[in-house]
Fold:
Amino acid sequence: MPRADAGYHLAVSEAREPVSTEAVMTEVRDQVRADLHARLVAQGGGADFDSRATFDEVDRLIAAAVAHDDPRALLIPARLPDPWRPALSLDLPGHRGGVAGRAIHFAKAKLVLPVVRWLYEYSAENFRRQQQVNVALMACLQAIAADHARLKARVADLERAGLERRPGA
Amino acid sequence: MKLLFVVQRYGADITGGSEYHCRAIAQRLAGRGHEVAVATTCAADYVTWRNVLTPGVSQDGPVTVHRFQVARERPLGAFWTLSERVFDGRASEAEQQEWFALNGPDAPDLLGFLRGHGRDYDRVILFAFRYAPSWFGLPLVADRAILMPTAEDDELIRSATILGPYFASPRGFFFNTPEEKAMIARLVDRQLPPSVTIGCGVDPAGPPPSRVALDGLDIPQDFFLYVGRVDRNKGCDALVRHYGAYVDGLAPGETALPLVLAGPVVLQLPQIPGLRILGRVSDEVRDALLTHARALVMPSPYESLSLVVLEAWNRGTPVIVNARCDVLLGQVRRADGGLYYRTSDDFAGAIRRLAIDPQLAAALGQQGLAYVDRTYRWSRILNEIEQLLSSLNG
Structure:
């Protein structure tokens, strides 16, 4: 591949037809999915993913669910008792008022907290990751439940149609 | 027209997306015969807002600059604590207002100037809604305000509940991208005020720089590139993890193209074969890197535009972006100027594809350049800005 200092990109692209990002990404994703499927089967996931079509369908559902990771769009958080998230912020509540309460709060915030700051930040980061996993799982569950509801409705429709077609019904 | 720009920091030496953007537009509108002034602070550092620049009135070429002192530096401890509450969605409306005050820069004299003199200007253009001058300044001049939010789909946008009325109040908007416009429209419960989606202009690139500047740095012939602050907030920790996974997953006999990181490093980086860390680089080296890279990688999950992506396209270099950022994904799809990824596997797939197919990379880069040519040249952007400014009567 000739690569001149000045005009590399111009030189090699002149003869090429327009390229669609989405078309290339479809090829890339297909290859990634094929590799992933082979890896999972090699590591013992063959029982669930014996057919590539099953794997593709499951992967599509999970990928779409994980991409919608905004908890405001999820039903499960709305049904959970609050607070449901891992607490990321560090409140320093106190039941004492007056001078003693303020002194204890000052000691916690200015003396104790800086000493254990590294521990707090380590924990907060792990809580953040856990929250991401929680939201992703909620999104997956919601997607599966929505699919289930649609299938139930479809089965009910088919049963009704079958009854109506039955002679004498 | 008589125009006033409001921005948290201002100056030729100030780095920062919205600050650069504000100055670029202000200077160019002044060059087109408008009477342009800027109201800003004495801060140069966006973390502390410490006063370092001289207060008062000065000239920046044709632009008059009114610079006001910051009353208090950002109280970082209280700000971080409150940020967690706001981003968790647990903050009251009063606490959310307090978040904007703590975020700063707290410049009461700037707000006083807007209150006293804002109506001396035909239009007041406020940049970056998250900072106090725009947040508290907009209501003072709402009847003539144009807001350039520079909003990202981040925790603040997702969690704060007081944004709707604010975004409904200006006379008009300048947006960076269609994704930003759609995001703000979702927060406003009525029709959005008039707007134009302009982004930031890019001048046509000069003759491509040679590789000489890179040879001295021992940069290999082919490489992937990241340019910018090497920071967790920019997604660089994930980028390095993904790159490590790509290197680990190479087939026997397959060689990884190196990943060059160019920018100040504020992140502890692991040792990975092929990872080349340059630190801060000169403009000359930066331009050469952008010209000769196989592709620019932009891992940031939060961007309202990403100027460096436009700069890469301007040099005919394709990009690989984090698709978790709607703006970057939208830009790449509109331009057909590169590839994108969501997961580590996708990243390896995209990077491997461009590593083995330089012609594909070049074609995508050229399409990126064509997109910049038709969308991000200053003449088109300034025409659209002037059209909106003059269409708002009164």
Chain B has a mean pLDDT of 94. Residues 358-375 of chain B form the longest helix (18 residues). The interface with chain A takes residues 77, 81, 84-85, 87-88, 90, 158, 207-208, 210-211, 221, 292, 315-317, 332-333, 335-340, 342, 345-346, 348-350, 353, 358-360, 362-367, 369 of chain B (CB under 8 Å).
